[in-house]
Every structure is written in C-alpha cells, then in structure tokens.
Design a protein that fits this description.
26% of the residues lie in helices and 18% in strands. With 92 residues, the protein is α/β, with parallel strands linked by helices. β1, α1 and β2 form a beta-alpha-beta unit. The relative contact order is 0.26.
C-alpha cells in the first residue's frame, strides 16, 4: 500500500520528500519541541514534555517568532543539528 501525504504549504511545484525512519524508542534521544506561538501551544508542549521525559527523552525547546510565518531557516537548522526528532505544537 502506498501512503499519500499532503503538504499544506503554498509550494507551486511540490518536491518529492522521503519520509525518515521513526524512532524505535525515546530513551536517550533528544527531542525538539517547536512552539509555533499559537494560543495554548506552550501548555500542550509542557504536558508532552513530562510524558516524553518519563520515557527517557531529553527535551530542547524552540519557538517561532510568529505563528503566521514559517520557522526561520536558522531555527530549522539548529533543530536538525541538535535533535533526533521534533514535535511541532499546534493548539488553540
């Protein structure tokens, strides 16, 4: 079976992307939490952080300057260089 993933960004010519393998465990992994600055996103990430830490993960927090724009390239590069995976918070 082939999965079809839709990218909601406004790309005029979508690029093919390879899905990265999933982590088999959170134990010993560094997980980046990206707060996109929507209302209640911080509260969501706070609760997830407790659970992820119980499963052995180390959490690093990042945030976008505004919810209406994509994360700056420097933030995305920092997350990619420092983390094994990322959770992007979207809440209201």
């Amino acid at each position: 079976m082939t999965d079809i993933l839709l990218d909601p960004t406004a790309e005029l010519a979508a690029q093919a992307r390879t899905i990265l393998p999933r982590l088999t465990s959170l134990e010993g992994k560094t997980i980046g939490f990206l707060d996109i600055n929507k209302p209640r996103g911080k509260e969501l990430l706070d609760r997830l952080q407790v659970r992820f830490e119980e499963l052995g993960a180390t959490i690093k927090r990042y945030s976008k300057p505004t919810m209406t724009r994509v994360a700056p390239l420097a933030v995305k590069q920092q997350i990619a260089s420092e983390c094994d995976a990322v959770v992007e918070a979207l809440a209201d």
